[in-house]
Hints:
101 residues; mainly alpha; three-stranded antiparallel beta sheet
Amino acid sequence: MTTKYNDMLDTKGVTVAFDFPTPQVAWTCAGYDDPDVFDPVDSDTLALAQSLCGTCAVRDVCLGLGTSRGEWGVWGGVLLEAGKPVDKVRQSGRPRKVTAA
């Protein structure tokens, strides 16, 4: 069975990967003590997450991933809901009733 797969191997991909290796960059959020900070429940937690993202080398890549995958939380320093940027953290519970004037 391994012969079948060996026949399909192409050295072009290996050569390209060797000539142009993927850069090893450190994501600021990787290994952060409290990952819940990137799913903020208040404006203080949002500000902390955004400050952490502000120094990250892959901020643009992260934001691109979050928007393309429809993610929720802070991605690349931007708060997302279903991949769409939002200005502030939604409060839990039902919204206040507005009476018609």
